[in-house]
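One chain shown below:
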Amino acid sequence: MHWTRQVTKPRLDIFTAAKQAITASPYAFGPVAAMSTATKPSALTFDLKARCSTSKARASTLHLPHGPVDLPIFMPVATQASLKGLTPEQLEETGCRLCLNNTYHLGLKPGQAVLDAIGGAHKLQGWNYNILTDSGGFQMVSLLKLAKITEEGVRFLSPHDGSPMLLTPEHSMSLQNSIGSDIMMQLDDVIQTTSPDHARMKEAMERSIRWLDRCIASHKNPSTQNLFCIIQGGLDLDMRRQCCEEMVKRDTPGIAIGGLSGGEAKADFCKVVDTCTGLLPENKPRYVMGIGYPEDIVVAVALGADMFDCVWPTRTARFGNAITSSGVLNLKNARYAEDFGPVEQGCTCTCCRPKEEGGLAITRAYIYHLAAKETVGAHLLTMHNVHHLLSLMRRIRTAIIDDQYASFCKQFFAKYFDGQPPPIWAVDALKGVGIEI
C-alpha cells in the first residue's frame, strides 16, 4: 500500500505544485498558453479511416505502445488486473486489444512497490496488449462514504485501517506511471450529473481543469504513456463548452467526456455527447466514460464518439443475463430449462461455437442449470457477453467504412427491440444527426 497519508500540517510540495498550476484566472490561461505552443511527446498515433456521410460516426485506428486498436471500440473492465471469470488468453480470444485496469484497486493491492518491482501491470497480469487506467478518484467518491474533495486532492479513510489518506493529481500520475498503462486518465473532480448544486458543478469543472495542469506537470513518461483529459460540467451545456475549450488547449493525446451514466435522462446524455464531440478536434480519440449498453453505444457512435467502457456486460453475466442481437436474455428463467440451442444462434464466441469449430457448444439449458449455483455459468456468459460487445463494435466499424451506418442503426434497433418502437430518446438523438430509424 503506497497512498500518500495525510499529515496534520499542509503538504508544502502539493501546495507548491498547485500554486504553479493555478494563476489569478480559475482556468490558468497563462501557463496553458505557453504549453500549447510547444510540441508535446505522444505515445499514440490516430489514423482516421472513414466518416459516415450522414452522421458524425467515424472509423479510425489508434496505434498504441502495445499494438493497434481499431475504433470505435468497447473496452472490457479488468478492475483488479483481471477480467472476472476470464484468463488473459480467453480475453485475447474475444478480440480484445485494449482493456481497463483500476488505479485505486491496484494502488491498494498489490501496491506501488510491487508494481515497480515487477515492471508494471502488463507483466503482473500476463497481458500483452494495451491497458487504460482510470485516475483512482472516482472510486474514492463512489466506494468510500467518508471522502472529501479539496483543492489539494481527494481525502479519504483507508478501507484497511481507517487512517486518513490523500490522493492528489501528482500521486495519481505516479501510480499510473508505475502501472505502465498505455492510456492514463487525469484525476478529475466528479459529482453526479443530477446534482442540483450548480455552484458545486462549476467548482468541479474548474478544478478538473486545474488538476489536469498538475497531472501534465507530474506525468513522468509522456513518450510511452498517453494522458487523456476529462471534460466535466454535468448537464449544463455551457459549462461543457467552457470545459471543452480549456481542455483542448492542453493538447492531450486523447479526450474523454466524463461524469455521465450517473442516472441522468438518456436525452440529456445525448445532448452532452453531441455538444462535446462538436467542439473536439478531429485528429484525437474521443472517449465517453462508463457507457456499455448496446443501444447507448450505437447512438453515441453516431454522435461522434470512439471509445466506451463499462462493467455492465461482465456484471450482468453474473446474474445469468446474456446480451444478444435480439436483446438481453435472462437465462435463469425456467423457459430455457429445455432449450438446447446456443446462447445466441450464429454467435462465434467460444461459448456458442460448435465443437467441430473449436467451441464449447454450450446450450441455454446448460446455462440455466448452472447460473444459480455454479460460477462456471457466469464465466461462460462473461465470455459470450464480452465477445458480443466486441463483435458489435466490429460490425459498427464495417458499417461506417462502407458508409452504411444509417442503415445499420435502423436494422440494429429493429432487431434489438424485437420489432417494438425504439426508445424516443434514441429516435430523437439519431434524427439530430440525420439518421431516421
About this structure: The first strand starts at residue 4 and ends at 5.
